[in-house]
Amino acid sequence: MAKKIALLIGVSEYGENIPPLSSALNDVEAMERVLKNPNLGNFTQVEKLLNPNSEVMRIAILNLFKNAEKEDLLLFFFSGHGMINDDNHLYLATCNTAKDNFEATAVDGNFIQAQSRNCYSKRQVLILDACYSGAFANGWHTKSLGVDIKKQLGAEGRVVMTSSGATQTSFTQEGATLSLYTQYLVEGIETGAADNDSDGKIHIQELHAYAKAKVQAVKPNMKPDIILDKEGYDILLAYTPKNPEVEYRKLVEKYTQNGELKKVAILVLTEKRKTLGITDAVAKEIEREVLEPFRRRLVNLKSYQQYFAEEVEQKYPLNEQTLKILKDYRQDVLGLRDEDVASIELEITSGKEAEYQKQREAEAEKNKFGYQLKTFEFETAEISLKSQLLGLVRKPEIKYIPKSGKYFTEDIGNGVFLEMVNIPGGTFIMGSPENEEGYDKSQSPQHQVTVYGFFMGKYPITQKQWRIVAALPKVNINLEPEPSQFQGENLPVEGLSWYEAQEFCARLSQKTNKAYRLPSEAEWEYACRGGTTTAFYFGKTISPELANYDSKYQGKTTEVGKFPANPFGLYDMCGNVWEWCEDGWHEDYINAPDDGSVWLNNSNNRRVLRGGSWFIPSENCHSSFRFYADAGFCGCNLFGFRVVWGE
User: Fold this and answer.
1) Burial letters 133-170, b for 16+ CB under 10 A, else e
2) Which of 139, 265, 459, 548 is deepest in the core (most CB within 10 A)?
3) Measured in Å, how far apart are the chain's first and last C-alpha atoms?
4) Peptide bond just before 317 cis, omega within 30 deg
5) Residue 359 contacts by C-beta under 8 Å, 6 or more apart in sequence?
């Protein structure tokens, strides 16, 4: 007569440098309980082996497979440490196995496989709840056995069930009496929850599928596996208990979504309790057991969240060593995958990442230019003409737009500073089309120019700034400390020749140890436009509300910064004072450089002026308008300048 025979081995104590396991012996007791139960496993022979040495363990395994008859169902269960060598070959540790000699004192997986292959029994189940138990598949060969289905035992064949992958540790549970995989094997049989098709029988694949799903609900990184040598057949291992609790548990499993029971599900289950005659206490305990894997996973996620947040708070970004420790904790202790914690990490690091990137940008600028850049807020404007006419004049409409820019301050002495705005590099079309108001042939042909990033003064040089630098040691020529006709600390300095502007730059450079200079003509126009392509950086036209031009409005220079800035955050680029550029004068742009560099002209002493002034009409103030004067001419009260710095 066919028999159901089991050998259950648990090893909790080991030799040197192998930690003990608290759950191994309890695993054996629990498996014995369900296998010997006549209403569940109904095994006729169950042998327990607790903490055997290697010799005793081999003999017991040998006897299990050697004494089996053809129709018998054999079950081998092991709970304990699994160890692998450099070839990923599995050994099951015994009580006399030490870390340094495990290949000699542990039981070789090949030994178990050999006994299994030579066994007469056509139904064999091997369950390994051990670290690296998936490595047992190495060397496993399928063996065709004749088809002889027995209803009382199920299909024939050999099955190996493993708690972990070939490179994984099998997870112990803090505060739990059973190991994770065995807990759900026992639960699946004892509660009938593994009977997926509700036929009253629990087959091996059903049991493994149930245990695997529960294990991965707690620790998704754990990979229990099943190895079948005859696909399509399944061994009948146990029967489902007949009671209302089993049916209620199946309903709870069915209604659970992502570890939760919704309110409507609870209402249905409350009615089902009455129908099945289950007390509220029993029902609550069943619900708790079903939801327990999800609750434990949530605890693991919260634990990871706590430690990850602590590390990020201490230092961000995390270094490689910290990331490695967190990964080991995530995978080996909590059993979580990368995708399980991705949203947690993103939520914690998003704010820090934004700060970090901001800091990196600032550091990059600091490294490039030697300054820590600051942010400033400003308003620029856009002007348009309304369609309706008021008399003969169209009414302008101005829209003010908030923007921000980067800058650094240069201390030039006596509490006086230069504010230098970061002008990012880029490409633009220099010059103006022939149909633009104020067009002159000197502004053509239009051509593409690429300009490298630099810094430009936020304002024209003021009289206060001029006075400080004019008092610095002479480089080439003398400077008049009060050259301006219109007096005022924050009025632009005016009445200056190109040579005097050059002397200012030389003295400033000597003081700061940086090469301050006048802008090239291309740099000036690029900075003035601020990314716009219209005649003015405000739009196609201009208004007295936006700039100081045409003597009938202001009649003199105005304090710098009075009018809205251009899109780069530069003030007074239209009007107020003409601004000297570094370039010599050319009648047009034929053969002009396309890299933003200075274009010299040794055939005359004329130098370029840009931007217009308080005195001239609007059409001579647009972004591309060009003017010139002899380098030694001071321009009365019309000529000023601003400085640039950069490679």
Assistant:
1) bbbbbeebeeeebeeeeeeebbbbbbbbbbbbbbebbb
2) 548
3) 95
4) yes
5) none
Q: What are the structure tokens assigned to 629, written together?
A: 């004067």
Distance CA 95, CA 180 (A): 22
What is the pLDDT at residue 175? 58
Distance CA 13, CA 109 (A): 20
Q: DSSP secondary-structure letter at 519?
A: P
- 405-421 in b/e burial notation, b at 16+ Cβ within 10 A? bbbbebebeeeeebbbb
- From residue 291, alpha-carbon distances to 256, 260, 282, 362 in Å are 8, 7, 14, 50
Both tokens of 268, joined, read: 């249905």
Residue with tokens 């939520």: 347
The helix (run of H) or strand (run of E) holding residue 76 is strand 73-80
Q: Tell me what pLDDT residue 27 has.
A: 95
- What single-letter DSSP state applies at residue 141? -
Q: Two tokens at 616?
A: 């001239």
Nearest to 58 by CA among 76, 75, 36, 46: 76
Maximum Cα interatomic distance, the chain, rounded to a whole number of Å: 123
What DSSP string runs through 507-525?
HHHHHHTS--BPPPHHHHH
CA distance 579 to 609: 5
* Amino acid letter, residue 535: A
Report yes or no: 612 and 574 within 8 Å, Cβ to Cβ.
yes
Residue 409 structure tokens: 């301050």
Beta-carbon-side half-sphere exposure of residue 543 (alpha carbons within 13 Å): 18
CB neighbourhood size of 342 (10 A):
10
Distances (CA, A) of 499 to 361, 479, 601: 38, 10, 16
Other CB atoms within 10 Å distance of the CB of residue 606: 17
Tell whether the model's pLDDT for residue 509 goes beyond 80: yes
pLDDT digits (tens, 9 = 90+) for 24-70: 999 999 999 999 999 999 999 999 999 999 999 999 999 999 999 99
Residue 93 CA to residue 19 CA, distance in Å, equals 11
Give every CB contact of residue 413 below 8 A, 6+ residues apart in sequence. 468, 511
Is the separation of the CB atoms in 449 and 428 below 8 Å? yes
Three-class SS state of 626: strand
DSSP-assigned letter for residue 541: S
Q: Could you give the CA distance from residue 122 to residue 541 in angstroms, rounded to a whole number? A: 96
350-375 per-residue burial string, b: 16 or more CB within 10 A, e: under 16: eeeeeeeeeeeebeebeeebebebee
Q: What is the pTM of this model?
A: 0.54
Residue among 629, 626, 195 nearest 444 (CA): 626
Best CA proximity match to 108, nearest among 179, 60, 54? 54
Kindly give, in sequence order, each residue whose CB lies less than 8 Å from that of residue 534, ignoring residues fewer than 6 positions away: 540, 623
pLDDT at res. 173: 55
The distance of Cα 84 from the centroid of its chain, to the nearest Å, equals 35
Phi and psi angles of residue 129, each rounded to the nearest 5 degrees, phi first: -100, 80
Task: Compute the distance between CA of residue 533 and CA of residue 432 in angstroms, rounded to an integer.
Answer: 9
- From the number of C-beta atoms within 10 Å of its C-beta (0-12, 13-18, 19+), residue 226 rates as middle
- Cα(286)–Cα(86) distance, integer angstroms: 45
Return the minimum-mean-pLDDT range out of 6-10, 271-275, 466-470, 483-487. 271-275
82 and 92 in contact (C-beta within 8 Å)? yes
